[in-house]
Design brief:
Alpha-Beta Plaits; Rossmann fold; seven-stranded mixed beta sheet; four-stranded antiparallel beta sheet; 15 strands; magnesium ion binding; magnesium; metal-binding
Length: 410
C-alpha cells in the first residue's frame, strides 16, 4: 500500500460505505500483525480498532474503507483466520464510522459479589434512558468486582439518578462521571476522618477514658443521622470529657485503625499527583498527626482546650460543622489551584452532606441512609481503595505500581 503524502487528511464522509472485520477465538502472539499486514495488501484506510482479551479469548474488530477488490479481500482475511484458528466476520455497511453519540459517561459498578441480575437491571436502565454501552472493561476482581462501562447517548445526571436507585435494590454500588477531559485533570481528594479514613469515632474513644462512652456514642449516632445540630452535639459531647488527661489523646492515636485500603488509596492517587485534605469534626490533636503520618497536604478540625494537662470540656474557636466542611473544601481547592469541579469528597455522616454536594464527585462511604440517598455516589463495600476504580485505575495497575516501588530483595 502506498504511504500517504505528508499532511494527508482522509476525505471519508460519514455516510460513505465501510467494512467491519471481526476476528474471534483463542488469543495468540502475532494476531494483530497478521491482520494488519493482510489489510495493507488491499489499499484500505483504518478508521477504528477495538480489541478485547478475556480468559485467553480474543475479539479484534477493525473498521476500514471499502477495498477495490472485495472478493479477494474477504478471501485473504478468511485465510488469515484459518491459519490462526480464528473465526472471521466481514460486515459491509454505511455510517459505521460516525463518532459516538453525545452524552458520554463512565459508569463504574462495584459488587461483592457482583451478580448477573444486578447487571441485567443496570444495563436495562441504561437502555431505557436511551444510552448505548460502547465498551465494558473489568477494573478489579478482588476484594470486590469492579466493572467500567463507557456509555453514550444518555445524560450523566440521569444515569446517576436511575442507576444508583437500581444498584441500591440489588446491593450494588454505581458511580457515574461525565466522560470528558476533566476526568484527567489533577484532583483534590477531601476526606472525612471518623468512620471514613479510620474505623470508629475518636470522641467515643476519648469518652471511654471518662466512663461515658455509651452516652457520647448515642449523641454521635443521632448527629450523624442528621437528628441533631452538629455543633451543639459536639459541645454536648466534649463537655463530658472534662478532666480526661491529655495523655489520653496519645493513647487514642496509638490505637487508631485505618479503614482497609486507606493507605493504598492515598499512596496510589498521590503517585498521580492528587492532593489530599482531611476535613473533620474531630480534633486537631489527632488529625494533625494523621496528616503528617499519611503525607496529607491540608487539614481542618476542631481544637480541644487543654489546661494543666487535662481536657477542659470545651472546644476553642469556630466548630468545623456541616457548612464548615464545605467551606474548607473550597478553600483547599483554591490553595491547591484546582477547580472545585475536579475535587472528590468522601464522607459518611449528615455533617458531610454540604461537602459532598460541593465537590465535583461526592462519595458517601458506608454512609447513613440519609447521606447515601442524597449523595451523588455511594460506595458500600468496606474497602476505601475501591475509590480508585471510580478514578479509572485498575487493580492490576495498583499492584504493578506497588511492585515497581518495592525495595529490591536482599
Amino acid at each position: 500500500m502506498s504511504t500517504p503524502a505528508p499532511g494527508h487528511v482522509p476525505t471519508l464522509h460519514l455516510t460513505e460505505p465501510t467494512v467491519l472485520v471481526t476476528f474471534s477465538g483463542p488469543d495468540r502472539s502475532g494476531v494483530s500483525t497478521r491482520v494488519f499486514s493482510a489489510l495493507d495488501a488491499h489499499d484500505v484506510e483504518v478508521i477504528d480498532v477495538e480489541q478485547l482479551v478475556v480468559r485467553g479469548r480474543l475479539v479484534l474488530s477493525v473498521l476500514v474503507t471499502v477495498p477495490d477488490e472485495v472478493p479477494g479481500f474477504e478471501t485473504d482475511l478468511a485465510s488469515v483466520g484459518a491459519d490462526l484458528g480464528l473465526e472471521v466476520e466481514v460486515v459491509h455497511g454505511n455510517g459505521d464510522n460516525r463518532p459516538r453519540r453525545i452524552g458520554r459517561a463512565q459508569v463504574v459498578i462495584l459488587g461483592a459479589p457482583l451478580m448477573p441480575d444486578a447487571l441485567a437491571a443496570l444495563t436495562e436502565g441504561i437502555n431505557d434512558l436511551g444510552g448505548n454501552i460502547d465498551r465494558i472493561v473489568r477494573m478489579a476482581r478482588y476484594p470486590v468486582t469492579a466493572i467500567r462501562m463507557e456509555v453514550s447517548g444518555a445524560a450523566p445526571d440521569a444515569l446517576q439518578s436511575e442507576l444508583a436507585a437500581i444498584g441500591h435494590r440489588f446491593g450494588t454500588d454505581v458511580a457515574v462521571q461525565e466522560h470528558g477531559i476533566l476526568r484527567h485533570a489533577q484532583r483534590l481528594v477531601v476526606m472525612d476522618v471518623d468512620s471514613t479514613l479510620i474505623q470508629g469515632e475518636v470522641i467515643e474513644m476519648l469518652a471511654a477514658h471518662a466512663g461515658c462512652e455509651e452516652a457520647v456514642a448515642h449523641v454521635t449516632e443521632r448527629a450523624m443521622r442528621g437528628e441533631l445540630d452538629f455543633a451543639e452535639s459536639l459541645h454536648e459531647r466534649v463537655a463530658q470529657l472534662r478532666g480526661v488527661p491529655a495523655s489520653a489523646l496519645d493513647e487514642v492515636y496509638r490505637n487508631l485503625e485505618f479503614t482497609p485500603g486507606a493507605r493504598t488509596m492515598i499512596r496510589t492517587l498521590k503517585r498521580l499527583g492528587y492532593r489530599f485534605a482531611l476535613v473533620s469534626g474531630g480534633f486537631t490533636q489527632i488529625i494533625e498527626r494523621l496528616a503528617d503520618d499519611l503525607g496529607i497536604d491540608y487539614f481542618a478540625a476542631n481544637d480541644l482546650e487543654v489546661q494543666d494537662g487535662a481536657l477542659t470540656g470545651r472546644v476553642l474557636g469556630r466548630v468545623v460543622d456541616r457548612a464548615g466542611k464545605a467551606e474548607a473544601l473550597r478553600l483547599f481547592a483554591e490553595q491547591a489551584g484546582i477547580n472545585v469541579r475536579n475535587t472528590v469528597a468522601i464522607g459518611d455522616g449528615a455533617n458531610d452532606l454540604d461537602m459532598l454536594a460541593a465537590a465535583g464527585l461526592g462519595i458517601a462511604f458506608n454512609a447513613k441512609p440519609l447521606v447515601r440517598d442524597q449523595a451523588q455516589t455511594s460506595v458500600n463495600v468496606p474497602y476505601l481503595d475501591a475509590i480508585v476504580y471510580l478514578m479509572g485505575i485498575t487493580r492490576e495497575e495498583v499492584e504493578a505500581a506497588d511492585a515497581a516501588d518495592a525495595p529490591p530483595a536482599t
